[in-house]
Write a structure and sequence with these properties.
With 156 residues, the chain is mostly helical. It has one domain. The chain is built from six helices and three strands. Strands 2-1-3 form a three-stranded antiparallel β-sheet, covered by helices on one side. A hairpin with a 3-residue loop joins strand 1 and strand 2. The two termini are 24 Å apart.
């Protein structure tokens, strides 16, 4: 278990200043653009288990729609825009497959049958709390990841 946590731990870079607040339309649109620009299949959750995948042919129109939101809702001030982009990057990480794996790992470690030490559970809990806060993924495009290939940091 220790070796499997290492890649996740190394790829989850520190997120200074993360606040548990709802992202603005600008921040959500910036994050969604980043998600849709990947080569991974992308889906929205419909109900508890149903996934609606976007067709590759529909991505350009969705990207154009999101770019319109960015144009109308993001700041023209360079400093404020940089802060919005940083918030979008944090949101993208929180929604990433890496954070999903980190959350799943914590859940497995907390299972009494796992016989994990309190220190290891506390370390994993701190990692999840600080770098993978819970976010509402309702109506957001999410990356599909099969776990067979390693995600590259520049794809997150």
């Amino acid at each position: 278990m220790r070796k499997s946590l290492l890649p996740v731990t190394l790829l989850l870079l520190p997120l200074a200043g993360w606040a548990a607040e709802l992202p603005t339309p600008c921040v959500q649109a910036l994050e969604q653009i980043e998600t849709l620009k990947t080569s991974y299949p992308v889906y929205k959750l419909e109900g508890a288990e149903q996934r609606h995948f976007i067709e590759d042919a529909d991505r350009p129109a969705e990207l154009a729609r999101l770019q319109g939101i960015v144009t109308n809702s993001c700041s023209a001030d360079a400093r404020a825009r940089a802060a919005e982009q940083a918030a979008a990057d944090r949101l993208h990480q929180a929604l990433s497959p890496l954070c999903a794996v980190a959350r799943d790992t914590l859940a497995a470690m907390e299972n009494p049958s796992a016989h994990e030490s309190a220190d290891r559970i506390a370390t994993q809990r701190q990692l999840v709390t600080s770098k993978c806060p819970p976010v509402d993924s309702s109506n957001l495009w999410l990356l599909q990841w099969n776990g067979r290939a390693e995600l590259q940091p520049d794809q997150l």
